[in-house]
Structures are given as structure tokens and as C-alpha cells.
Amino acid sequence: MKFDQKIYLSDGDLDVLTVGELLIDFISTDYVMELKSAVHFQKVFGGSPGNIAVNLSGMGFQTAVIASVGKDEFGDYIQAFLEQRQVNAEGLQRVEEATSMIFVTKSMENPKYLPVRNADYCLVDKTIHYQLIDRCKIFHFTAWALSMPNIRAVTMDLVQYARSHQKLITFDPNFRQNLWEKNHDGAAWIRQYVMPLVDIIKPSEVDAANIWNIKDSLDENQLIGLSHKEDMTIILTRGERGLTAYSGGESVSMPSCADIVVDTTGAGDAFWAGFLASVLMDHTIHEALKHGSQSAGYNLGFVGAISDLPLPNKFEEEPLCE
Q1: What is the pTM for the complete model shown?
Q2: What is the pLDDT of residues 207-256, one digit of tens each?
Q3: Is residue 207 part of a domain?
Q4: DSSP state, residue 112
């Protein structure tokens, strides 16, 4: 794909289907460097796939999620939140294990976190999953949905089905080895089995180091070569230094659009929402990158991952950055 091109999307009444973790985020109410220093926490809806679906729904797009939560009050909260935000929850499964949660430091830079995982990796295969894929234009999933054996098998079946039905496949490789089962090389597994199925991937610099051992994000030849080899667009996010994207033998960089930074939680999810909204509105990849950056910058002014993100055309009228 070239940066000045628009992306072909298949037909469907669902704009985006997301697969992966739905969680309760407990974000410290004070800025702290480490979780052990936190005293009070704010409970918010969380999990990258859910954040993206909710943000896009708030922008007027039709979204759905496939995920599993517990048959408990936190699971009730997540289901009610999705329904209130008009996200299709037909793919939401309620399981016996407790709803997963994550404790996060409120941070202006890179937050520290502690996951307590149970229900999020207990997803089982259902006919409704494939029916939702048939209806969607974009299929989005995360590395969390690959990090344990059962959900890995389910997710990969869904990814392969989406690939065979010409859906645009986007992947957030939020890879941390400590989320995977012991003695499993998750990075090598992602490189071998996931990358060939993906159209667009958005690693952070930490992800790039963990998955590809790319420790110098300025090594354009390595990243351009990787993009060409896997035939995918790589969007490398670099925090306050913005992003650099690689596609079709080219690269393009954009600055951070952050104005006021209140909390960095969910900035990546806001980027995905703005980027995918722009793609759905038939913009070029270059325009979508700009809109994603502006959405991420806007979200940094709020606590948590959910905010009332403006549509890309609003940013055209009042740009956060050029």
C-alpha cells in the first residue's frame, strides 16, 4: 500500500469488529512512578479492543466486540457499558472465571501496570463469531488475544477466516512476554504465524524491540525491508516524538499532536480509532495517519482510554497539529 492511496474495504453493515481483552482498568488517582506508591484508584472500562470499539461507536460507526468476561458484577458493568455505548455485544461471552482487571499508574509518560488475568483468555469458538466477521469491513485484534493457548487457537481461526473473506486486518502487537504462558516464545510465534496475515500493524518502540529486536527506531532500512517482506503497513509509535510509518517501500514521519498531557492511558487506542475512522471515511493512508495522531493527542487530555473523540473532519477544521 502506498501512503497516497485509499484502502479497499469489503462490504458490510459492521464497520469494525474487534477481538481481544475486555478489562476493568484501575488507574491511580495520583501521579506515581510505581504502583506500590499508589493509594487510591479510579475504576474505568478498559481493554484495547473495547476502547477502540467504544470510541468508534461514539464517532458514529457500527462496531462489535468478541471477548469474554466473568459472570460477576464487573462483567455486568462491562456488558452494560458496551450496550450503553451502542457497541454490538453479541460476541461477548460470560464465563465462570472472574473478570480480568489491570492496575495502572496515572502517568504523563509510560504507565506501569499490573494485570490480574482470568476471564479474558477463556474465549471459546462460537458460530456468532464468524457471522460477525461476515458482516464487518475491518477486523482488529491484539496480542493479548494470542497470549494463552485456548484463546490463541480461537483467535487464529478467526483471523484466518477474516483473511479468507478479504477483510482489512489490523493488529496491535502490545506484546509483553510476561502475559504469555511460561516457556513459550511469543515473539517468534507472532513473527512466524501472525505477520503473514496482517495488513496494518502499530507497534510501539517497546513492541519493536520485543518482537523484532529492533532497538534503533531510526533504522529505516530494516523497517522498510520488514514492511516489504511481510507486505504490510507498519506504524511505529514513538511517544512524544510522534510516529514513523513504513509501507510500499516508503516512510513518512509525523510529530506528536499532544497539547496537554493528563494521562497516557489509551492513547494508542485513540490513535486506532482516529486512524480507522479516517480509513472508513475513504481517506488516504497518509490522511488516516494524521487523523490517528490527532485523536491520540486529543485523548491525552483526559484520564482513561475513553473520550468523545471528534470525527476526522473536525480536526480538519480545528487541527491539533499540521
Answers
A1: 0.91
A2: 988 898 877 655 667 888 888 888 899 999 887 888 999 998 889 998 87
A3: yes
A4: -
**Is 106 inside a domain boundary?**
yes
Kindly report the backbone phi and psi dihedral angles of residue 104, in degrees, each rounded to the nearest multiple of 5, phi listed first. -135, 140
Q: State the Cα–Cα distance between residues 296 and 137, nearest whole angstrom.
A: 23
Which residues are CB-neighbours of 137 under 8 A, at least 6 positions away? 9, 10, 11, 12, 14, 15, 16, 167, 168, 280
Could you tell me the residue range of the domain that residue 153 belongs to?
14-310
Smallest CA-to-CA distance from 322 within 233, 230, 235, 257 is with 257
- Show the cell assigned to 37: 506508591
Neighbour-count burial for 96-127, b at 16+ CB within 10 Å, e otherwise: ebbbbbbbbbbbeeebbbebebbbbbbbeeee
Count of beta carbons in the 10 Å neighbourhood of residue 159 = 23
CATH of the domain at 77: 3.40.1190.20
| pLDDT > 70 fraction of the chain, expressed in percent and rounded | 87
Structural domain total, the chain: 1
Q: Name beta bridge partners: 104.
A: 27, 113
- Say if 4 falls within a structural domain: no
Confidence of residue 305 (pLDDT cuts 50, 70, 90): low
Counting beta carbons within 10 angstroms of the beta carbon of residue 32, is it exposed (0 to 12), middle (13 to 18) or buried (19 or more)? middle
312 and 59 Cβ atoms separated by less than 8 Å: no
In a domain, 2, yes or no: no
